Amino acid sequence: MPSNDVSLSGPLDESSDNWDNTDPFAPGSLDTENLHGGLDSYNPRHGDNGEDTQPAPLDTSGQPGIPSGDVEDLWMQETIHLDDLRTSADFVKALRETTLDDPILGMSSDAVERLRNPLREDPSLSVDADTRMALELFLNDPSERAYEKSRATILRRHPDDILPSCYKIRRLIADLTGIESVVHDMCINSCIAYTGPFSELETCPACSESRYELSSPQSRSRRERKPRQTFHTIPVGPQIQALYRDPESATHAHYLREERARVLSELDQKPYLDEYSDVLHGADMIQAFRDGRIGEDDVALMFSIDGAQLYAHKLSACWIYIWVLLNLSPTRRYQKKHVFVGGFIPGPKNPKNIDSFLFPGLGHLAALQRESLAIWDAARQREVHSRVFLPLITADGPGMMHITGFVGYHGKHSCRLYCGLSGRRERHGKHYFPALLKPRDYDVEGSLHPDVDIRVIREASREQYERNLSILVTSSNEAQYRARRLETGISRPSIFSGIESSSTLGLPKSAGSDIMHLGALNISDLMISLWRGTMDCTRPDDKATWDWAVLQGEVWQQHGKAIADCLHYLPSSFDHPPRNIADKLTSGYKAWEFLQYLYGLSPGLLLGILSDKYYTNYCKLVYGMRIMNQHRITQTSVCIAQLALASFAQEFEMIYCQRLATRIHFVRPCLHSLVHLPQEVIRIGPPICSSQWTLECTIGNLTKEIKLHSNAWSNLSQHRILRAQVNAINAMIPDLCVDGPSEGRLSCGAKDLGGGFILLRAREGNPSPLRECEAEALCDFFPAIQRGVEIPVIRWAKLRLPTGQNCNSAWKETLKQLKKRCTAWKVKVRCACIFLWLLHADVLNALDMSRQ
Amino acid sequence: MGLVLISLYSKPDDYLLSISANTLWSSEYQGDGALKFIDVKTIQSVVAMIPHKPEIPGLPPSERFFLVEKPGLDVVMMAGIKDDVPGDEEDSPPCI
Asked: Which segments within A311-410 are labelled E, that is strand?
């Protein structure tokens, strides 16, 4: 067994199907003491792969015609025979050759000059009082109409003020921040972008549409001809520079530097960290700290891409990608004001070659990585030259397939972490499913491997990936390519292969796990489809035998209503409470609702509806995912979650699929990804830190900010650029304070108790006495108080917790009707559940006096 | 120091805990019977207590409450959803 696996007892043989006795996660034995046996063999700082206990996909040694050596040689043209592969390889190669001043990247020479020699003066000094007012006005509502209106109003009252026009203020912001977009041509049908190897083309290789307006005469030079469609990219370098120009923002960005030092020194004392609460705590990042790939002055970025549907019921696909700066602490870096928008790929169709759209942004990054990024660190008043490290790329499932070049989720080797698990094919179909157990009476060629032990699921291996990639890329004909694609699980090289290996974790390790889509959408869809009996039924299987399919007819309606009824009991800090799932399932039930439904409410709501076997199995999923969804995960919890999720997944196959070949499609890829999650915590920190939640929020924000709906594409691009500039200027001159009250400002009459606890109004005007049972409780707390003495206290209505949640006191809440209640008056104290809370601060003085 | 008067819920039911892999914490409300003063700063988070009437072998059905914690308490803080508290849901994109 490899050294990095949790020991999981319980035989795989279904003949002993008594899970209650053998399952380490049986609730009776859920004792962390028992799990320490697993801990010994769960060293987070294991070597790369351990031993391979499972056959690796396509063992290539000894195969003729495979170039030996390094993936670095792979991009040589002669070895690549197939056109599509050559195109991908050309992009990789081009990425490896970019420089900042390469005209292909589109940056102006001024911008490049500034990137190489960052400005040093304090940006707030270069802004006079009038301009500052104009900036504040503009940033409060960055639309031309609103700005010009306010400007006119002010000028009527103070005609002598010099308030720049909207155009000028936008120019000023671009100058101050140094952030401008670079524009490239693209196909009118959004098939490809005319970048990199495509930059010389005049018609789209996919749809043959012309690049330029037909009215532009061909005789003119390219500069003078009007492209039919363009798209914008915002280079990330200037955005990073802008952040460091203000001392306060620069200090915030020293988080990585400090955390790096803390983690390294903690690991000098003991073999592993007790707790994971950031990407920087993952073993892969720590390795990069150790071997100097990430030094104390370096910059680390996470890349995240997602497709979005701008308007419901309309063909309006677009893609947005962002950069998350890991140098900021987790509490800051995911906020919309700190997220760097990278690029925007307009629709209305999905791009056919996404590499070509990413090329300007990634080319810029690759050039920065080669040249290093000059930053004026205003906090330390010195210029540093930072290497830019790209540890992680994240996307949802289909998006990931686009950017990693792995085969889709129905491939034989569909694991997006490239663990090498072989899937099993449906008897009559092309799709593979990652079923661990070999079905009975099953004879599908290529899928006949014996049961796979869930304990030996391996980690991603970079070497294996690169070896297999060379095999794929050197296929000499289409048939060979198909066969190799099937066996390697790779369909083409990823453009991210163009990032130098010393500046990234490298595929497949840089592929994040995206717990958002996995946990909130894919798993819920699987479980709900089963419980509702809407899953495809393959003959001769018969839905009548699906004893788990209980959420039908009246039961389903009642269940939906029960969810909606919880609304009155969920505090507002839970955000969108889940709506009636029976009504809304097919019309846009949101990820956040699924999350609360499946992992929050349903252990209560499905009790007595699902029969015991399925209920207990489902609860193991909940147990594991509740841990995986947290931001702080202890070493011990990782092990428990690993047991819970592995046990869930393995048991799932036994109780739902029952080794029937007709049910192999129940084992969707998400079930397999789930089992990897705990290992991923150790490798790259809590899944939340590299999840898609951030990007979904940014997309939500950007679309909200579009005020005009005509020509949404160019409008969205403009907004995106403005957003990047606004964020940068906020970071550079933080006291412009355009995002409402700044952090830490107290509302009127509030009382700060320290440590993030703040009492909020209303507050009782005059002290009033405690009831007798309350006074008793106070005497228990302060034995010095004499019993029977009347103690007046002042009650408060609300308390703000360090979590940002408000809890309301029963003093005010019980006066309201159920439907109007805030319901945030149930709080958790060191694992004891409590309720009804009251009271306040000022009583203490009185108590101290009574003690004397 | 601020003080908080709380009313403790009962211990969670063992049977329900055991069949639910420790995920279903079902308690009874004890009202004035379990009042306690605590230091404000021992409060960790706001949770929901949802009423239900589960069948528990050997016990008559009674009004109980089960505990629901906010899933991934930190997710929202980190992802910046709090940045803009949603008001007009219809406007938000159906992207997730």
From this structure: 317-325, 340-345, 373-377, 382-386, 388-394
